[in-house]
Amino acid sequence: MESVLRGLAVYAFLMLVFRISGKRSLGEITTFDFVVLLIVAETTQQALLGEDYSLTNAFILIATLMSADILLSMWKRRHPLVDKILDGVPLILIENGRLLSDRMKRSRVNEDDILTAARELHGLERLDQVKFAVLERSGGISIVPK
Amino acid sequence: MSPTKSHRLEVGEDPVFQEFSWKAQRIGFIVMLLFVAAAVLGLFGAGGPLAESVVRADGLEVNYERFVRFDTGTTIEISLPTKAGDSISVEIGRSFADAVRIDRIVPPPHSISANPKSHVYAFAPASDSPSIVTIAYAPSRVGQLDGAIRVNGHTVSFRQFAYP
User: Do B36 and A2 touch (CB under 8 A)?
Assistant: First the structure.
């Protein structure tokens, strides 16, 4: 039982922390973000395992984490509100070519991020070629060219 | 799922296999939930309603975990049927003593000796009764562990299962 409780506690805490840190933290990941993630993973591992390095404990933890994830995805599908709370909602950053700078500021996205997405996805050269830019729930930026 | 006739999109769709794979996933998920539920109940040790057990004989009481894990600490609590002033010797059967690594005994024994059948831990006379001896140990073998504890002539035996 202890392993299951540990797994659920860590799952819930990680979900909370990543939700607080916002979409940008994982959307377009930089090398440093990646290093931080590795450190988080390492710390989590110790909290999860404690001093129990048995196979049984590892199997229970993996099954607990995966089950929690599947159950949560089922719950999200049934209840749109839960889905919104856990995964957030998409946010329009450029509407018909007009920059919505307040939204960009609050979601910590700058023009460079949008230009990067525009170049990578559509090979666009300038911001005025972008009709819509949307910060998706996944944390990535999607671009609709003019 | 009915197969779609797409002649334009070059995609390796296989509805029959997809159907099979969805079914397998659903069954797998249920099995996984049952596994987690068993863990919550304590069938894999480390807490839970079914994890602990107790055996009693002649006032001797041994609390132990039914299910333990390889190389992971667990404890046995022995409540002794002693009167004040009794000296106590706790004998742990050889087969059990050989299958575990004893980390700590509280209170610490006065002397430790071994004979072909058991390890003997002798304690100074108890000032109160009943006194409790806690043995912290970790299984060094996987599978069934048959334990026998003998205290001043009273014997209890118990069984543990050590998961890998």
Answer: no
Residue B161: count of CB within 10 angstroms of its CB: 17
Mutation site for B-interface testing, chosen from A3, A69, A71, A72 by largest number of B Cβ within 10 Å: A3
The string of pLDDT tens digits covering residues B7-38 is 678 888 888 999 999 999 999 999 999 999 99
Measure the CA–CA gap between B94 and B149, rounded to whole angstroms. Answer: 10
Element (H, E) at B73: none
| Cβ neighbours of B43 in A, within 8 Å | none
Q: Is the ipTM of this complex over 0.85?
A: no
Inter-chain CB proximity A63 and B35 less than 8 Å: yes
Chain A residues within an 8 Å CB radius of B27: none
State pLDDT tens for residues A38-90: 998 999 888 888 888 889 999 999 999 999 999 999 999 999 999 888 888 89
Single out the residue of B140, B137, B136, B108 nearest to residue B124, CA to CA: B108
**Vertex B142: Cα angle to B55 and A10 (nearest 5):** 90
Q: How far apart are CA B50 and CA B63, in angstroms?
A: 13
Please state the φ and ψ torsions of residue A95, each to the nearest 5 degrees: -120, 120
